[in-house]
Amino acid sequence: MSGRVALVTGCSAGGIGHALRSYCYRCERFAAEGCRVYATARRVEAMAGLSAHPLISLHALDVTSDADVLRVVELTVAEAGHIDIVVNNAGMIAIGKTHEQPLEHVHAAFDTNTYGALRVARAVFPHMATRRNGLIINIGSVVGDIAVPWNGLYSATKAAMHMMSNILMMELSPFNIRVMNIAPGSVRSNIASNATGFSLSSTSRYTDFLPDMVRRMNSSQGPNAMPADQFARRIVSAALRRNPPTHMTVGGSAWVYKLLRWLPHTFVLWFSWRLFSKKA
Questions:
Q1: Annotated catalytic residue 257
Q2: What confidence tens digit (pLDDT) does each residue in 9-55 have?
Q3: Which residue of 60, 87, 180, 217 pairs with 95 in a disulfide if CB–CB is 3.0 to 4.6 A?
Q4: pTM reported for the whole predicted model
Q5: Active site annotation includes 158
């Protein structure tokens, strides 16, 4: 194939990755270049609706497995000849009190949200470096830049991803491999409904805050959330530029988080706590 080849993780139906794939094959610029998309998720059956297009291949991929990541990357290169674009989109939510999260859940969140992206980057690097061409897109979050209560573990995994993206931007530049760090605001997806590890024991000192935790979990799916297709359109358009941006903040309420980055740190923490906790 002479066109671009994209490998995207986290393509479960209803998620951001699914929309990215859906838009990729409809995008005139990708289609004109004959782009082939390798859509992946833990379970192939979770990618309902993507198999109808001839330029989309569906593959099971667990980003927490070194062997699985390497297998899919090698399969993609063997079939398509190369990989031009990688979208590290796979992720899991981690709602709850940060200091009471079970350690196994902490490990799982970092393994999926942060280490998974690094695994994929490590696997595609030799192929992209040989061709001296490639683009790695890491999907982070606005809460990786601004601290919010009841979502601390997820925020920590995305903050680590943001820093990792910045370092990779420098370290991969000698091989003409670009890195885009995306910090989405509110985007309609199924991430809240897929929440795992969220529980509150009867002896917890935080029982009064349970409604706040639930509200925080669903806050990204409010009426101002950006439709996933619109989000995908923005990302794909930016990725196809001759010089893709290194950082983008896109989605509902994105402007609020951009503003907060410029305000005094103490005020931001106070504001965030008052916004997402009971007023008592």
A1: no
A2: 988 766 666 666 555 544 334 544 567 888 899 988 888 766 666 77
A3: 217
A4: 0.88
A5: yes
